[in-house]
């Protein structure tokens, strides 16, 4: 039995029905299946015009998926890697900055729960949060607040 050839548009819609994709990400995924004469850019333009694909929805989706586990710099870095508009990045950065300390505290609590008793332990906890993309200011505020709660 012959395998059915799925059109690029059908493939794109299948990808987009699972989750939001950036233009760059969807183009990369579709490029594997493109045949000679297929115009991926025109297809992506059509999908954007029909509002099947949206940079704003993708950005919002990515932020919602990542915010509970990662800090601002990691999220913004990932958005930049998807070629998101710099103006949108500025708005997202401002929105993320409002609750970074609370998110850092929550991630720290899930991972460690109690403040370290020595300098090496504190450094380990701070490195963990730094690797997750939280700022020094947010890390210090989160750890300071946790230590005050324990006293």
Structure, described:
With 151 residues, the protein is mainly α. Among the domains are: 1-53, Arc Repressor Mutant, subunit A, CATH 1.10.10; 100-150, Arc Repressor Mutant, subunit A, CATH 1.10.10. The chain contains 9 helices and no strands. The longest helix has 15 residues, at 136-150. It is elongated, with a radius of gyration of 21 Å. The mean pLDDT is 90.
How is the topology of this model organized?
Elements: H1 8-18, H2 23-31, H3 40-49, H4 55-66, H5 72-81, H6 86-97, H7 100-111, H8 119-131, H9 136-150
Helix pairs in contact: 5-6, 7-9
Sum this structure up briefly:
Helices cover 69% and strands 0% of the residues.
| Element pattern in H and E | HHHHHHHHH
Structural class: mainly alpha
Task: Provide the residue-averaged pLDDT.
Answer: 90
Largest sheet: none
**Oligomeric state of shown chains:** single chain
Do you know the CATH topology of the domain at 1-53? Arc Repressor Mutant, subunit A
Rg over C-alpha atoms, rounded to the nearest angstrom? 21 Å
The CATH class designation of the domain at 1-53 is: Mainly Alpha
SS field, number of helical segments: 9
What is the beta-strand fraction? under 5%
């Amino acid at each position: 039995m012959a395998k059915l050839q799925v059109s690029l548009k059908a493939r794109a819609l299948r990808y987009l029905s699972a989750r939001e994709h950036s233009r760059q990400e969807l183009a990369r995924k579709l490029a594997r299946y493109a045949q000679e004469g297929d115009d991926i850019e025109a297809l992506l333009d059509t999908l954007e015009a029909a509002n099947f694909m949206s940079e704003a929805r993708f950005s919002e989706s990515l932020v919602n998926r990542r915010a509970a586990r990662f800090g601002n710099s990691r999220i913004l870095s990932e958005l930049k890697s998807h070629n998101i508009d710099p103006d949108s990045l500025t708005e997202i950065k401002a929105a993320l900055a409002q609750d970074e300390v609370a998110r850092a505290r929550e991630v720290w609590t899930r991972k460690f729960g109690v403040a370290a008793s020595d300098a090496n332990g504190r450094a380990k906890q701070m490195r963990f949060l730094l690797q997750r993309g939280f700022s020094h200011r947010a890390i210090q505020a989160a750890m300071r607040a946790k230590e005050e709660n324990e006293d």
